Amino acid sequence: MPATDDEPQIGERARLAELIQIMGRHGLNGLASRLGLLPGRSEQPVDVGTPERVVALLRDLGPVAVKLGQVLATREDLLGPEWVRALSTLQDRVTPLPFEALEPTILAALGSPIGDVFASFDREPIAAASIAQVHGATLRDGTEVVVKVRRPGIAERVDADLRLLRRIARLAARHSPEIRRLKLDELLRFFAESLSQEMDLSAEAAACESIGAFLQPLGVRTPAFYWDQVGRRINVQQRLDGMPVRAILDGAGDCGADIAGIYADAVLRMIIFNGRFHADPHPGNVFVLADASLAFIDFGAVGVLSPARRNEVVTLVLAIAGEDTRSVTDVLLQWSGETNVDRQALTRELDALIGQFRGAVLQQIELAEVFGRVFALLRTYRLALPPDLALLLRTLLIAEGFVRRLDPGFDIAARAAPIARELLRERIGPAGLKRGGRRLATSLGRLAAASPELVAFAERVARSGALPIELQGGAVCPTPTSPRRADPNLLSAGLLIAGAILQRDHDVVGAMMMASAVLPAAWAWFASRQRR
Fold it and tell me: What residue intervals traverse the membrane (predicted)?
């Protein structure tokens, strides 16, 4: 009889039994009970163990558990500071495999003898991690390269451990409301997708080239790849002539501010304009090249901010800037999916939090401090952020820590302001309005049969990028005796601009707002023509 979804198969049962045994060895039977791994004991008050014991357990369980611990270390919205500190000590460093163990993988991936592709191949690795290790090599034409090779058997190990983690997550969610709040299913789904990308070394190469094309005009380089030698288990990439920023942080001196500025621009523009960004831009992954330019390496971790999510972030930022705490509350509750929350109390606390930073000098505010206070509030109200947003915040915190070490006076928030203004100019400029107008004209196609003149009006807006709006003087400058009313034409103009801003990333919302802008003016124009 086949096993049901709730019954582990034979291999999983053995791994589960091994897990329970290892937990007992670390004095974590209480945690096993809380997770529902020891039947009949989960309802009893138990000691789940210290963060240090859990970290030791994760190290013993292997690479997948270590990587999960690293992800959890970024989730201050879920875990308290003592847990985050302990989990942050987990490092993805393993004992390198000897060359003989990797050689069959290299031969199979290349499809030919190593000597046919490389003039030399360093048997000692440059670096080793749980998924892959990196070796230096030289191509037949003398070009120095870096060869990244996936560890043999890691795909099967990751797949088995992920199945086990999902099973444990389901058991734990049934037995513990506190663990259910962590939304482990969603977190593990995001974690599995990230691991899948990291194990596909061709996906890393594609991400590096794609994001690299965006960074190139900014003067930031990424390594080129030799696609004849790129596959899921291996990639061969250019070896950049430079040194990691980590090695020169202490001696950055006068160039520290310049490096910080270029780096901050690159990270912020990747997020704001590109939507795909290097999700682990720590000092070891950023190089200063021989020509003093900056380079990013190791695109195993890539963040993706969907257009919808970017709009939500913009909404949140605008609400905070406008001290509209009700809207801030709405966004946070939308992200968490929670409904059983005291909205008024949460709004009051958010208002107090925003008020504490009101009027402060930006250079005196650290993102880490702001995020820390927000995360504490989220934990208090048992709210959780979506995993993709948590990854974005982690990237911003890495970036801020980076630039503050290079230049203690660097203000990354002020650096973002001109980038945001640039985005605004792009969206409301003639080209942006034309794009929006064309989409709107298409959306109004159904009206052609009923009102050809109305559609002709919309098409002229699309071609010219201008909206014919007649402003009545009395509406703009009301007399003392006249009521102060919003002129519908001014409202139309405002909606048109707002629609243009949103339309780049959210066609439906943007088109609706632009339609709200154009249709009243268009209808007035059409009605005036009919009266004539």
Answer: 508-526
- Stated length of the chain: 532
In the block, tokens 């004209």 appear at 441
- For residue 134 the two structure tokens come to 């990196």
Q: What is the pLDDT of residues 397-450, one digit of tens each?
A: 888 888 888 888 777 767 776 776 676 666 555 555 555 555 444 444 444 444
The 3 state secondary structure assigned to 253-303 is HHHHHHHHHHHHHHHHHHHHHHCEEECCCCHHHEEEECCCCEEECCCCCEE
d(CA 295, CA 286): 6
Find which of 42-46, 121-125, 462-466 is predicted with most confidence, using mean pLDDT.
121-125
The single-letter code of the amino acid at 158 is V
A 10 A CB-CB count for 414 gives: 11
Q: How far apart are CA 509 and CA 82, in angstroms?
A: 42
Assign 33 to helix, strand or coil: helix
Q: Is 0.85 surpassed by the pTM of this model? A: no
Tokens of 209: 């080239």
User: How far, in Å, CA of 281 to CA of 398, rounded?
Assistant: 7
Which residues are catalytic, by number?
Answer: 280
The residues spanned by each domain of the chain are 12-91+155-197, 245-428, 431-464+489-530
Tens digits of residue pLDDT in 35-83: 878 765 545 555 667 889 999 999 888 888 989 998 888 888 888 889 9
Question: Which conformational region is residue 383 in: left (phi greater than 0), alpha (psi within -120 to 50 degrees), or beta?
Answer: beta
Contact 221, 212 (CB under 8 A): yes
